[in-house]
Task: inverse folding
């Protein structure tokens, strides 16, 4: 950042880029679980996983749109 303190915009860009890339990396890692020669899963498992991810994406997006969101619990397949 050079001189002085980081602006709010610079801080947002730095954190948002890092966090978005971390999420993308984790989604790619999750995609590795699709290898059916190494893992056993059902379509119901897949649907539940992606429903949970999509719900969290909607909640995060609401925060940017200033709509009240609920705090979600941790995900489990069971």
Result:
């Amino acid at each position: 950042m050079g001189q002085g303190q980081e602006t709010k915009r610079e801080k947002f860009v730095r954190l948002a880029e890092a966090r978005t890339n971390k999420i993308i990396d984790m989604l790619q890692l999750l995609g590795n679980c699709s290898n059916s020669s190494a893992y056993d899963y059902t379509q119901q498992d897949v649907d539940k996983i992606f429903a949970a991810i999509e719900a969290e994406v909607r909640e995060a997006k609401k925060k940017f749109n200033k709509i009240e969101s609920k705090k979600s619990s941790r995900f489990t397949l069971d």
The helical segments are 8-31, 43-64. The first helix runs from residue 8 to 31. The mean pLDDT is 91.
